[in-house]
Design brief:
The protein is mostly beta strands. The protein has eight domains: 38-83, Complement Module, domain 1 (Ribbon); 95-141, Complement Module, domain 1; 153-198, Complement Module, domain 1 (Ribbon), CATH 2.10.70; 210-257, Ribbon (Complement Module, domain 1), CATH 2.10.70.10; 269-317, Complement Module, domain 1 (Ribbon); 329-375, Complement Module, domain 1, CATH 2.10.70.10; 387-432, Complement Module, domain 1, CATH 2.10.70.10; 434-489, Complement Module, domain 1 (Ribbon). It has strands at residues 38-42, 49-54, 58-61, 65-67, 80-83, 95-98, 107-112, 116-119, 123-125, 138-141, 153-156, 164-169, 173-176, 180-182, 195-198, 210-214, 224-228, 232-235, 239-240, 254-257, 269-273, 283-288, 292-295, 299-301, 314-317, 329-332, 341-346, 350-353, 357-359, 372-375, 387-390, 398-403, 407-410, 414-416, 429-432, 444-448, 458-462, 468-469, 473-474, 488-489.
Length: 490
């Protein structure tokens, strides 16, 4: 029997239990075991069913029930209980999520960046059905309260958190306080609220020998005017104004005794005289620096009309006359400027007679006199007796010596005039050419004899019974050799 053996009809007209059934008594199926993180319920007999459930935050994967078959095996396969997970949550725009876990029953917290506030639930929980509770909140921009605009001023910018307001004041007003204020995360403004106050310049006093006729220290108001007493004139601006930066448009003028204006400085010179003020009748004197000459009046006088006589002179550079090259020479650094120095030089073979340097003086003349280039020569060494020479005596030049016929040169045939005015080599001489000595021939004799070139001939004679073989007469020649060999007597 499967079910209640006895049942009763109840007062509501229903049975106390369902009618029982009679089932076949076969073998039982084995215990299938509980799934991890789950449970199983039911009987293990033939035809019986078992039912699977999972713990909270786990879901069943596989059949929810299985039946015991006649072969003592369960239908289907053993199911499993797997952890329930929710979808991954993204950070909201201008915000972020903390504890962002996808596990069942886990709670996440929503936050907004500085300057934004959360609209919606700040928390959501992962449910056992894999869905998050609630809806995704959003971060909306926050703004600070408008701090207002200062009187006589303006501001630029917006009221959002992190943004800055820029303050400025109207013309002739100055800002006191913070020129820039930023909307902070706590919706308060940084700095101190500025104000615009009227610009006021420093106080002025009446000038000596004069007074102020109109006066206002505030920017944008009327001008301040000055007046000098009789006999004095205003030096500076007659009217000045207080400007937007708190300064006067010009310095306060002064009242000075009437005089000529201060003369211009003298370029390349100086102005001498009384110091300012330059009263009527006073004189100033001009002079020039060294190497400059004055062109114009040397002095000027202050006249009754507060003007100087004549015009301002000038100081012009002093120059000397252009120097010409010396004959047989040249110049180096040939400048005409004052204090410049020129160098005189002579060509080779010439020597300078006079100062080699001249300087251009402040009066426009050259120092000294112009030197000249004279021929640079050696003393005449003379001409050897019975000889002659060719050439000139100038430094670097050479004399060539030679001798007359039948004379030979002893010494240097060429001599050069050196830079120290001495001659190279040794002075030559001309000596008579003499041939070698002759002897009487065997069986004969010399009847006329001269060993010197250009003299008489040498004559030979043989004794009786002998005759001369060779030249009867021979002559000593200019090269020191005989005109023929000595004859013999045979």
């Amino acid at each position: 029997l499967k079910g209640s053996r006895s049942i009763t009809c109840q007062s509501n007209g229903s049975w106390s239990a369902a009618s029982p059934t009679c089932v076949h008594l076969g073998k039982n199926c084995p215990d299938p075991g509980r799934p991890r993180n789950g449970d199983v319920k039911g009987l293990f007999g033939f035809g019986e069913k078992i039912y699977y459930t999972c713990d909270e935050c786990y879901e069943l994967k596989g059949p929810a029930d299985r039946q015991c078959q006649a072969d003592e095996k369960w239908t289907g396969t053993q199911p499993t209980c797997e952890s329930v997970k929710c979808s991954f949550l993204q950070n909201p725009a201008n915000g972020y999520v903390t504890s962002n876990s996808q596990q069942c029953n886990n709670t996440v917290q929503y936050h907004c960046d500085c300057g934004y506030r959360l609209n919606g639930s700040p928390r959501r929980r992962c449910q056992r059905n894999g869905m998050w509770t609630g809806n995704e909140p959003v971060c909306k921009l926050k703004i600070c309260q408008d701090p207002g605009t200062p009187r006589r001023g303006s501001k630029k910018g917006n009221l959002q958190v992190g943004q800055t307001l820029y303050y400025s004041c109207d013309q002739c007003y100055q800002l006191r306080g913070s020129p820039n204020r930023t909307c902070q995360c706590d919706l308060s403004w940084s700095g101190r609220q500025p104000i615009c106050t009227a610009v006021r310049c420093s106080g002025l006093r009446h000038p000596t020998n004069g007074r102020i006729t109109e006066y206002s220290r505030y920017c944008g108001r009327k001008q301040t005017q000055f007046l000098c007493y009789s006999g004095y004139q205003l030096r500076g601006s007659r009217t000045i104004t207080c400007q937007s930066d708190g300064s006067w448009s010009a310095v306060s003028p002064t009242c000075v005794e009437k005089s000529c204006p201060e003369p211009e400085s003298q370029k390349n010179g100086i102005v001498k005289g009384l110091y300012s003020p330059f009263r009527i009748g006073e004189k100033i004197y001009y002079s020039c620096d060294q190497c400059y000459k004055l062109i114009g009046p040397a002095n000027r006088q202050c006249q009754a009309d507060e003007r100087w006589t004549a015009t301002q002179p000038t100081c012009e550079p002093v120059t000397c006359s252009l120097l010409q090259y010396p004959v047989n020479g040249y110049l180096t650094f040939n400048s005409q400027q004052c204090n410049s120095i020129v160098q005189y030089n002579c060509w080779y073979g010439y020597q300078l007679n006079g100062s080699p340097k001249r300087r251009c003086q402040g009066n426009g003349t050259w120092t000294g006199n112009e030197p000249v280039c004279e021929l640079n020569s050696c003393q005449d060494p003379g001409t050897p007796w019975r000889g002659n020479k060719k050439g000139i005596l100038q430094v670097g030049k050479t004399l060539h010596f030679s001798c007359d016929q039948c004379y030979q040169l002893k010494g240097s045939p060429n001599r050069t005039c050196q830079s120290d005015h001495s001659w190279s080599g040794r002075q030559p001489t001309c000596t008579a050419v003499r041939c070698s000595e002759l002897h009487h021939p065997t069986n004969g004799r010399i009847i006329a004899y001269s060993r010197y070139c250009g003299r008489k001939q040498t004559e030979f004679l043989c004794y009786s019974g002998y005759q001369l073989r060779g030249s009867r007469r021979i002559t000593c020649q200019s090269d020191g050799s005989w005109s023929a060999a000595s004859p013999t007597c045979v």
